[in-house]
Task: structure prediction
Amino acid sequence: MFLNAKKNYLYLNELALMKVYLKFDYNILTKKIIQEKLSELGCKYTIAGFGEIDFLENIPDEKINDLSAKFESYGIEMVENQKSVLVQKIKDTITELVTSEEPLNVKSSVFIAEKLNHSYGYLSNLFSDVTYTSIENYIIIQKIELAKQLIINNQLSLTEIAYRLNYSSVAHLSTQFKNTTGITPSAFQRIITKRRELSSKNN
Amino acid sequence: MTTDFIYITLADDDEDDRLFFTDAFSELKINTKVNTFNDGVELMDYLNNSESVLPNILFLDLNMPRKNGVECLLEIKQNERFNDIAIAIYSTSSSEEHIEETFVNGANIYIKKPNDFNTLKKILAEVVTLNWQYHTSGLNKDNFLLRM
Result:
């Protein structure tokens, strides 16, 4: 009936013998569209809440872009995804920065902003919105994580690790380690060693 | 997605402490769901039930009747199902030896109970934020040690 209505519209309008009012439930409408488009994509998902989709499998980027384009024609925008993609790019850049063995001759903020082609202010706000921590703090966390790995591997001395991670001195590394984790690098090493002894004893 | 919840569980026999703790979380920016237990037996009954939602972070008071924090810690560490839970020891003791021992036994975080509410809020915010980074950035949980 609804489909025919379009054809008869002019006629009806001219005579105005009959008028039909439509009422929409936007929630149902949106949900239906989302479900339809997602089924076309053919992947497993659940609708977690209003405007929130959880995928139960990994979706390749092309499919996500495809979906994004489909949604767009209905005025539906994939917000979180774009945000989290950029946040992931920031994280990747930080990993690159931290693991690089060459000392960096620009400030990390400049490096990140130039690499991702956005202003640092924008990136920095976005980052804290999504991750609840600042870029600066995240860099420190990553550096300390890398220091932990190097300490456990036992191949480099703390001085060498400090040099490798571009700290100005061992003292600087030790202080930042202690400030971030609450324990000293040597206590960390002791605990992990004891843990390993304990678990090899138990197994 | 950012609207994810962090599930948090606390076992503590002190009612005031439980109350402070839940209040502190309700004021944080990160979305959390908190449940509490009065002692180690109640806690382990909950965790061992296969239908329970396992917490992302478990806060254990050391001195509890029936089953204390260390006993819970050892039990949890023996069960692979609990591998993803970050364990925080929440205690009034600050003996160095004691702290190191709980870390060796598998605790990730050691918190000395603070005397005022604002410090508690600050500490919990820091713990949850750092845990969130481990959770979302694929950091190695085995190396997650934090003392506050």
About this structure: The two ends of chain B are 28 Å apart (CA to CA). Helices of chain B lie at 15-26, 40-48, 69-77, 96-104, 117-136. Chain B touches chain A at residues 1-3, 29-30, 100, 103-106, 110, 129-130, 132-133, 136-137, 139-140, 142-143, 145-148 (CB under 8 Å). Chain B has one domain: 6-147.
